[in-house]
Amino acid sequence: LGGKCRDELRCYASQLQFGWTTKIGPWGSDKEYVDIVRHAVSEGYDAVKIDPVFAPLEDAGMAPFATQGNQIRGCYREHDLKRSLYKRIESRMAAIREEFPDIDIIVENHCQTDLTSAIRIGELCDKYDMMAYEEPVTMLNPDMMKELRQRIRTPLAAGERIYSRWGYYNFLKNNSIQLIQPDACNCGGITELKKIADMAHVFDARVQVHVAGAVITNAASIQLEAAIPNFGIHEHHFRTTQECINKLGKYDMQPVNGKYIIPDRPGLGQELSDFAIETALMHTEVTDFIPALQ
Fold first, then answer.
1. Strand, coil or helix: what is 13?
2. What is the dihedral of CA 151, 153, 154, 157, to 10 degrees?
3. CA 206 → CA 92, 108, 182, distances in Å?
4. pLDDT tens across 5-30, in order?
5. How many Å apart are CA 101 and CA 104, to the nearest integer?
6. Cα separation of 80 and 61, whole Å?
7. Is 189 in contact with 216 (CB distance < 8 Å)?
8. Contact assessment for residue 240 and residue 271, using Cβ atoms and an 8 Å cutoff
């Protein structure tokens, strides 16, 4: 990859609306949002990411799309959101910023509002001095990101739904993304990710690899971010703090005081654990065909 540009990576605590380390969510009230940010800050993080639009299924302006255990998520409809939801978004932002005036905050939106709603939320990001505004609109139309960029000051972040250098080119050319977030598992692997990062450097964009997978994805992302000059910040996802995920790796890789030390072990610096291998699904080739397919 060309050698290290740094020995450590600054991390942010990601997706706090679902919880953090020992405090499992999901969370909803202003107080709960402040409390979960305080929990992450107490562990040494000076940057966080949280979705202030997140709401339970029964809330107005939301349509259900998934449930998993006690984690209830909502899907925002593709039209202008209700005033009550905007008020809740601002209330959450204001509560966190008032309690933590000096930390960096990334606002998550998961690509699930239309441009009109994204602009209104972006104006709140400006008001409360957010570090970045992530996935505010669909990635299928670069002109929408460009329009949003021209309407607000907060840097825009996106990229987990953009694939390859060609997918990124128009977003970089029109300066609509300032913090790119390619995913090593989606964009074509480490080599393509490195090429995307190098192209972003030409356009003065910084890189935060999207990390919402397990131990191998995280290790690969750390190695890539260590080797690029335009590294921005590392995403340390809520799931990556959980034992059910960490036991899949041979080595326990967690940040210390909000920073990763780059491992010097061979390769990615991580391997699958014996537990992961022993409990993996078995894949077999089907050799007996049903008569209709013969």
1. strand
2. 60
3. 27, 17, 11
4. 999 999 999 999 999 999 998 898 99
5. 9
6. 9
7. no
8. no
